[in-house]
Design a protein that fits this description.
alpha/beta, Aspartate aminotransferase, golgi apparatus, transmembrane
Length: 671
């Protein structure tokens, strides 16, 4: 008989139930924090128990990880390779082509040998299904224990987990895990198979096992608490009363003691305190204006005839005018004339067909993740809303403690978005991920899917592969921001390559999509937040939580822009027309890159300007310094961000020469 496989969460749960019976209680929260509490008998008061915290172990980071540790030994005349595969959360993948452990194994050892280093076809000699739901009784029965803490205040004793498995050579197999607190690193330090006891011994040092002391009840009696309360009240009375008498009556010495007048004035005193508090709330400090939107405001207020706005990344046609995509115009017309259209609320997670089409657009229609039903999405307030909802979700269900790493430089709004939900932001060196030498294990990392803002420099496919390796080895959570699909290369699929590559490698990740740029729907706020997860069950759970968050944040998303995108993405003819419109925009931008570079070279502007044409997407990171930018703004009425980023869409055949000459001027004259 085979019982169904039980997951890591399930075995934790069964453990918790067992311990409850033993007089221990534990809790596990959504972040995978397992807390142990023991009831301690108080000899004097028989019925009175108090909770004593033993340990809090953050198991979340050690779940869902497939560990594969391979050891090669010279055993003349052959070489023996021992491969130990461990996944605490779910059965190991079955490789049908090769000999592997049976289905339902969680910890498996495969021993092979080969004749020489060059031997490409090693022979399997032993397969040990060490732990899993496959022993004779069919029970994958974990036993969890906490090693008694050596001293009372130390709450970080190792966590011992024993897992039973199948049989090898008619002997029951077993894995003994010891999780030991190590705040510095996360790795398996010992991995030995004990032949006598048929046990695989694993010592795993991890920050996840570092106990945290939360509850320390000193056992103060109710009477003592009451006396302390009275003393505090008395101190407050005499303290406030004396302060009041001093301020109001300029009293000194014994006159400072509160007297009857104090009580007469007490209601006024309270009302004064309230007034003071309300006033201090009202005095909100003045915030600085937004760097990008303020440029547009200044540009609009400028009356100079040749003014140029290279600030916000919004497409303009060659006449410098905002461009409504012809396909968008057509669909809008159809929507207006559609008698069935109403202005009812959309569902909380948005228009279902829009979400499905968005998923297909970014992952590719034949993505295995879609087929396996492990993708879920929420319609959002454009790309910013997707970033926000993704950040909010991770701060609740991933961890509030881990930082998110942003490329240096990045879009000016990324940091505030993540800080707003309480996530700490840190930087990673964008151009040189290899020597950034940061200790970022377990963090979230934000990646620009294509057309990096502000640099316009994207990793090559080989560089993406190296980035994926780092992300895998450091166990980071990839957070893709995709605001420019179709703008980087002019090809929607090519611009989605990085995301699709990560999905293919099996990462769990999220993607923020914006239709502001590629549909020109800036003010319509059409966007989508997509999660790719490890299975359909996780997708359903994430979806339910997204709906809950969305409901309290915006209730439901706006309909008009999403309807336009929905119609275009779901209609082959309109889609083809959109691709054409997109191509028109991206090729005009490309032409402007060539034109700007040519003009700069023609006017002998010092420096190399190849990066203008090498960079892709909406922006160019010119390399101009803040003082040069200031002169461009003040003297030449050309608006761009202080970091030297220019929106290529702000250039046109009629202003490119003016912009190039102005750049030439500042490069030659401003340090
Ligand atoms: N992500 C990145 C990388 C972006 O550059 C932008 C827009 C967004 C998300 C959000 O766009 P959305 O909310 O409008 O969909 N960046 C602009 C505008 C174009 C801005 O700052 O809001 C920019 O000029 O950088």
């Amino acid at each position: 008989m085979r019982l169904p496989a039980i997951t890591f969460e399930e075995f934790l749960e069964s453990f918790l139930r067992e311990k409850l019976a033993d007089g221990m209680i534990s809790t596990i929260n959504v972040a995978g924090e397992l807390s142990f509490f023991a009831k301690e008998e108080n000899a004097k008061r028989i019925e009175k128990w108090r909770l004593l915290e033993i340990s809090v172990i953050k198991l979340f980071p050690i779940q869902y990880r497939l560990q594969n540790i391979t050891k090669e030994e010279q055993t003349p005349p052959t070489i023996t390779i021992t491969s130990s595969l461990i996944n605490l959360c779910e059965p190991l993948p079955i490789d049908k082509k090769n000999e592997t452990c049976p289905d339902g194994t969680y910890v498996c050892q495969i021993i092979t040998n080969k004749l020489s280093k060059e031997d490409k076809s090693p022979r399997v000699i032993t397969i040990r299904p060490i732990a899993g739901d496959l022993n004779d009784e069919g029970i994958f029965k974990p036993v969890i224990a906490l090693e008694p803490a050596s001293n009372k205040d130390d709450t970080s004793g190792p966590l011992l987990i024993t897992l039973n498995g199948g049989s090898y050579a008619e002997q029951k197999q077993q894995a003994n895990f010891t999780f030991i607190c190590n705040t510095e690193k996360d790795n398996i330090t010992t991995l030995e198979y004990n032949n006598e006891e048929n046990t695989l011994i694993i010592r795993w040092e991890t920050p996840a096992a570092c106990g945290q002391k939360i509850l320390e009840d000193k056992g103060m009696s109710g009477f003592t608490k009451f006396i302390i309360f009275l003393i505090i009240i008395a101190l407050c009375y005499f303290g406030f009363g004396a302060a009041y008498n001093y301020h109001v009556y300029k009293a000194h010495g014994w006159d400072l003691l509160p007297h009857l007048d104090f009580w007469r004035d007490f209601p006024y005193l309270i009302s004064d305190v309230f007034k003071y508090l309300i006033n201090s709330i009202r005095t909100v400090p003045l915030a600085p204006p937004d760097v990008i939107f303020n440029l547009t405001a200044k540009y609009k207020a400028d009356t100079f005839a040749q003014k140029v706005n290279l600030g916000v990344g919004a497409y303009r046609d060659d006449a410098g005018k905002p461009w409504v995509l012809p396909v968008v115009k057509k669909v809008e017309q159809a929507l207006v004339n559609d008698p069935s259209r109403d202005h009812e609320y959309l569902p909380i997670l948005g228009l279902p067909t829009f979400r499905e089409a968005s998923i297909r657009l970014i992952l590719g229609a034949d993505s295995p993740a879609i087929k396996e039903n492990r993708v879920t999405a929420a319609q959002t307030i454009s790309g910013t809303g997707a970033n926000h909802l993704g950040a909010l979700f991770l701060s609740r269900f991933y961890s509030k403690e881990v930082p998110i790493y942003l490329s240096n430089p990045t879009w000016a709004n990324h940091k505030p978005i993540f800080n707003n939900v309480g996530l700490e932001t840190r930087n990673y060196a964008y151009f040189n991920p290899k020597d950034n030498g940061l200790d970022i294990d377990g963090s979230i990392v934000l990646l620009h899917a294509c057309a990096h803002n502000p640099t316009g420099v994207d990793p090559t496919q080989d560089q993406w592969k190296a980035i994926a390796d780092v992300i895998e080895s450091k166990k980071l959570f990839p957070f893709f921001d995709c605001a420019y699909q179709g703008f980087a290369s002019g090809d929607l699929d090519r611009d989605a390559w990085a995301v699709r590559y990560f999905v293919e490698r099996g990462f769990e990740l999220l993607i923020c999509q914006s239709y502001a740029k590629n549909f020109g729907l800036y003010g319509q706020r059409a966007g989508c937040l997509t999660f790719v997860l490890k299975n359909s069950d996780a997708a359903a759970r994430v979806s339910s939580q997204l709906a809950k968050l969305q409901r309290s944040e915006i209730s439901n998303p706006p309909a008009h822009g999403a309807r336009i995108v929905d119609r275009v993405l779901n209609n082959p003819e309109l889609y083809a027309e959109w691709v054409e419109n997109l191509r028109e925009m991206s090729s005009r931008i490309k032409n402007m890159r060539d034109a700007l570079r040519d003009c700069l070279i023609k006017s002998n502007t010092p420096g190399n300007w190849d990066h203008i044409t090498n960079q892709i997407g909406m922006f160019s990171f010119t390399g101009l310094k803040a003082p040069q930018v200031a002169v461009l703004k003040e003297k030449f009425h050309i608006y761009l961000t202080d970091n030297g980023r220019i929106s290529m869409a702000g250039l046109s055949t009629s202003n490119v020469e003016y912009v190039a000459n102005s750049i030439n001027h500042v490069v030659n004259n401003v340090a």
